[in-house]
Amino acid sequence: MRLVVQRVDSARVTVDGKLAGSIKTGLLVFTGFGDMDQPAVIPLMIRKLIELRIFGDSGGKINLSLKDVRGSILVVSQFTLYANCSRGRRPDFTHAAPPDLARQLYEQFLSELKDTGTEVQSGIFGAHMQVDACNNGPFTIILDSAVVT
Q: In whole angstroms, what is the distance from residue 27 CA to residue 96 CA?
Protein backbone atom coordinates (compact mmCIF):
# COMPACT_ATOMS: atom_id res chain seq x y z
CA MET A 1 0.00 0.00 0.00
CA ARG A 2 1.34 3.38 -0.95
CA LEU A 3 0.10 6.76 0.21
CA VAL A 4 1.20 10.10 -1.17
CA VAL A 5 0.25 12.52 1.58
CA GLN A 6 0.01 16.26 1.00
CA ARG A 7 -0.63 18.78 3.76
CA VAL A 8 -3.32 21.11 2.41
CA ASP A 9 -5.25 24.22 3.33
CA SER A 10 -8.04 22.89 1.12
CA ALA A 11 -8.63 20.18 -1.47
CA ARG A 12 -11.49 18.96 -3.62
CA VAL A 13 -12.16 16.22 -6.12
CA THR A 14 -14.74 16.30 -8.89
CA VAL A 15 -16.04 13.63 -11.25
CA ASP A 16 -17.84 14.63 -14.44
CA GLY A 17 -18.04 18.20 -13.15
CA LYS A 18 -19.76 17.15 -9.89
CA LEU A 19 -18.15 17.55 -6.49
CA ALA A 20 -17.30 14.16 -4.98
CA GLY A 21 -15.48 15.39 -1.88
CA SER A 22 -13.81 18.42 -0.37
CA ILE A 23 -11.94 19.39 2.79
CA LYS A 24 -10.42 22.43 4.42
CA THR A 25 -7.27 22.03 6.57
CA GLY A 26 -5.95 18.49 6.49
CA LEU A 27 -4.44 15.87 4.24
CA LEU A 28 -4.96 15.01 0.60
CA VAL A 29 -4.07 11.32 0.38
CA PHE A 30 -3.49 9.58 -2.95
CA THR A 31 -3.91 5.88 -2.22
CA GLY A 32 -2.66 2.90 -4.21
CA PHE A 33 -2.59 -0.83 -3.56
CA GLY A 34 -0.12 -3.41 -4.77
CA ASP A 35 -0.83 -6.93 -5.95
CA MET A 36 0.67 -8.39 -2.75
CA ASP A 37 -1.22 -6.14 -0.29
CA GLN A 38 -3.34 -7.72 2.43
CA PRO A 39 -6.08 -6.15 4.59
CA ALA A 40 -3.89 -6.50 7.69
CA VAL A 41 -1.68 -3.61 6.56
CA ILE A 42 -4.51 -1.07 6.65
CA PRO A 43 -4.66 -0.39 10.43
CA LEU A 44 -0.90 0.22 10.56
CA MET A 45 -1.06 2.67 7.66
CA ILE A 46 -4.05 4.49 9.16
CA ARG A 47 -2.31 4.89 12.51
CA LYS A 48 0.82 6.20 10.81
CA LEU A 49 -1.23 8.59 8.67
CA ILE A 50 -3.31 10.22 11.39
CA GLU A 51 -0.44 10.37 13.90
CA LEU A 52 2.17 11.69 11.44
CA ARG A 53 3.46 14.96 12.89
CA ILE A 54 3.52 17.25 9.89
CA PHE A 55 1.58 20.32 11.07
CA GLY A 56 3.11 23.37 12.70
CA ASP A 57 2.62 24.14 16.39
CA SER A 58 2.30 27.63 17.90
CA GLY A 59 6.10 27.97 17.80
CA GLY A 60 6.24 27.11 14.12
CA LYS A 61 7.78 23.66 14.66
CA ILE A 62 6.48 20.71 12.67
CA ASN A 63 5.18 18.96 15.76
CA LEU A 64 1.44 18.31 15.42
CA SER A 65 -0.53 15.46 13.87
CA LEU A 66 -3.79 15.51 11.94
CA LYS A 67 -5.51 14.46 15.16
CA ASP A 68 -3.93 17.39 17.03
CA VAL A 69 -5.17 19.98 14.51
CA ARG A 70 -8.54 18.23 14.06
CA GLY A 71 -7.98 18.15 10.32
CA SER A 72 -9.82 16.25 7.62
CA ILE A 73 -8.69 13.76 5.00
CA LEU A 74 -9.55 13.61 1.31
CA VAL A 75 -8.71 10.16 -0.07
CA VAL A 76 -8.25 9.66 -3.81
CA SER A 77 -7.59 6.21 -5.29
CA GLN A 78 -4.61 6.16 -7.64
CA PHE A 79 -3.35 2.85 -9.01
CA THR A 80 -0.57 4.69 -10.86
CA LEU A 81 1.37 4.84 -7.57
CA TYR A 82 2.50 1.33 -8.55
CA ALA A 83 3.84 2.34 -11.95
CA ASN A 84 7.18 0.79 -12.88
CA CYS A 85 9.09 3.09 -15.21
CA SER A 86 12.44 1.30 -15.08
CA ARG A 87 12.24 0.04 -18.66
CA GLY A 88 11.15 1.86 -21.76
CA ARG A 89 8.88 4.88 -21.85
CA ARG A 90 5.52 3.31 -21.05
CA PRO A 91 4.75 2.71 -17.36
CA ASP A 92 4.13 -0.90 -16.39
CA PHE A 93 1.33 -1.43 -13.85
CA THR A 94 1.67 -5.19 -13.32
CA HIS A 95 2.40 -4.73 -9.61
CA ALA A 96 -0.75 -2.68 -8.99
CA ALA A 97 -3.53 -4.66 -7.33
CA PRO A 98 -6.18 -6.03 -9.70
CA PRO A 99 -9.31 -3.81 -9.69
CA ASP A 100 -11.46 -6.13 -7.54
CA LEU A 101 -8.80 -6.44 -4.82
CA ALA A 102 -7.94 -2.73 -5.00
CA ARG A 103 -11.62 -1.76 -4.62
CA GLN A 104 -12.01 -4.06 -1.60
CA LEU A 105 -8.89 -2.66 0.07
CA TYR A 106 -9.83 0.93 -0.78
CA GLU A 107 -13.31 0.54 0.72
CA GLN A 108 -11.85 -1.10 3.82
CA PHE A 109 -9.30 1.72 4.13
CA LEU A 110 -12.07 4.35 3.95
CA SER A 111 -14.26 2.50 6.43
CA GLU A 112 -11.50 2.00 9.00
CA LEU A 113 -10.30 5.59 8.53
CA LYS A 114 -13.82 6.87 9.26
CA ASP A 115 -13.91 4.67 12.39
CA THR A 116 -11.10 6.82 13.85
CA GLY A 117 -13.49 9.77 14.14
CA THR A 118 -11.61 11.75 11.51
CA GLU A 119 -13.69 13.58 8.92
CA VAL A 120 -13.07 11.65 5.68
CA GLN A 121 -14.08 12.61 2.16
CA SER A 122 -13.17 10.67 -0.96
CA GLY A 123 -13.14 10.50 -4.70
CA ILE A 124 -14.82 7.69 -6.61
CA PHE A 125 -12.86 4.48 -7.10
CA GLY A 126 -11.95 3.88 -10.73
CA ALA A 127 -13.36 7.18 -11.96
CA HIS A 128 -11.52 9.80 -13.98
CA MET A 129 -11.19 12.58 -11.40
CA GLN A 130 -10.06 16.17 -11.28
CA VAL A 131 -8.23 17.06 -8.07
CA ASP A 132 -7.64 20.62 -6.91
CA ALA A 133 -5.51 21.37 -3.87
CA CYS A 134 -3.97 24.29 -2.08
CA ASN A 135 -0.84 22.52 -0.85
CA ASN A 136 0.48 24.03 2.39
CA GLY A 137 4.26 24.15 2.30
CA PRO A 138 4.36 22.41 -0.08
CA PHE A 139 4.64 19.44 2.21
CA THR A 140 4.43 15.97 0.65
CA ILE A 141 5.27 12.62 2.28
CA ILE A 142 5.27 9.14 0.75
CA LEU A 143 4.25 6.25 2.98
CA ASP A 144 4.84 2.71 1.71
CA SER A 145 3.63 -0.30 3.70
CA ALA A 146 6.78 -2.17 2.63
CA VAL A 147 8.86 0.19 4.82
CA VAL A 148 6.42 1.62 7.41
CA THR A 149 6.67 0.31 10.96
A: 23
